[in-house]
Structure formats: structure tokens, C-alpha cells
Amino acid sequence: MMKTGISSSGYIDRYGLEEGVRRLKKHGFECIDYQSFADTDTELFAASGAEFERRLLAVKSALDSEGITVSQTHGPWRWPPRDFTQEDREERLEKMIRSIHGTKLLGCDNFVIHPIMPFGVTEDPEPEKLWDMNYVFMDRLCTAAEKEDVVVCLENMPFTRLSLSRPCEILKFVKNMNRDHFKICLDTGHCSVFSESPAEAVRLIGKDLLRTLHIHDNNGQSDLHWIPYTGVIDWNDFSKALKEIGFDGCVSLETNITSKMPEAARELQEISLSHIAKSIAGRE
To answer: I want to staple 212 with a disulfide (CB 3.0 to 4.6 A). Which of 41, 50, 70, 185 is the partner?
Structure first.
């Protein structure tokens, strides 16, 4: 049976650890997508190894107390991209490897990442070189992940000029890598930017390689992280496709929740998200 989850940013980052976890449980979520590894310019990455572990074990303890599990974590991601030099890429790799260790400390075995983007997102002058650089980078990352028994999940991107963005391109890349600890995270909103059906992407990827999900909606043009059913995506077909392939992971929302509303209204929106996730998972 599929479980339901949501990004940590809307709960732990907004309300703090204890209150965020309490609200997660109250609203009916079972899992969380821990995204504090995405930004590496933080106290977490400035901490010593021992302090890094202490902080993450405290997070796990708080989640365990309410029966919430970490379904996936999000690896380092910088905007705008900082992958232009070998030094940039080595720094990112080092912090990704540290995040993989952190993922294991949280009791999780799914680590979501973006491709490296050495030419940025608006230009792709040498697609073959871009892919080759990613093969080298991901091979090193997978070797580190295998030691921790963590699965690296490569995410499709919303960048229309990048040759490693669309689900079919991510699928080809992952198949070419042929590593047991290298699978796919399907982002529904990123699919929609290309006017592609997330449901068809699920069917294309299949159960063996589809490991994790980022669930959100948009207008079919921009990466907006809208709540499902407020944009152009056919969620009934998406839910059907997940069932067809036998997906048994987490339906994990990656949606924006506005803070510019009264507390009661915001909580109603948060509760509605839990019901939406369960609906997509076929549990309501």
C-alpha cells in the first residue's frame, strides 16, 4: 500500500521540529521528505561530524516518537547552479556524500538528487559532454551510496534547454549507468513544464526504476509547485498509472503552502493536502 508524505519545509522548517512533527501526525501524514540537505550554506553543514550526527539523530527521535518515517531526503541543490568548475563539483560531491550518511542516520534509504549542470540551465552547448560529466559524477556518488546502502534517485528537471531533463532522458541515463543503487525520482510538475503526462512517465519508467515521487501541479508552462488538482495535470490518470505498475512507495507532496493567511485557514489547507495525497494513493 502506498504511504503519504510531504516536504519537510512546510512543517519542520515552518513550525520547528517538535511542533512540525506533531502537526504532521495530526494531519494524517505518515512520511516526510527531509529537504534540509538541499541548502548547504547552513549551520548543519558547518557543524562538526559529531554535531552533524547529533542533530540528525534528534530529528529521527522526534519523528519516531510520532511514528513518522523519512521516505526520502533531498540532496544538495544550489540556485543558481554552482557546478561550473571542477572545484565546484568536488565541493558538491563532498557535501552529497555527507548527506548520504545523514540520510542513513535518519533511517532512510532514498536520496533524491538533480543532475550536475556545468553549463547552467539556459544553455547546453555540448550535450555529450554534459552527459559524460554526469556519468563520472554519478558513478562516484553511487559508490559512496552503496557503502551506506542508500539508493540515489535522479530527478527529472523543468529546464527545457537542458538535454538531461525529461523523464525519457533520465530513464536512458539511469539505464546506461546500470547501478543497483541508482533509480529515478519522478517530479510531476517538471513533467508538466514539457507538456508531458506524469501518468505516461510512470508507465514509461515502470516499477523497477521508479523509486520516489515529487507531487505538485502547475499551469503547464512554469515550475510553480501548486497543490494537486489546481493546475493542468490529470491526477486520476496518474493515480491509475501508479496502481498499474504496482508502485508501493510514498506519494510525497512538494507543494507550496502560503503563510499569509490566518492560522485556522492555513491548518485547513494543510489538512486538505493530507486528503489529496491519500486520494492520489487510492486510499480515499
So the answer is: 185
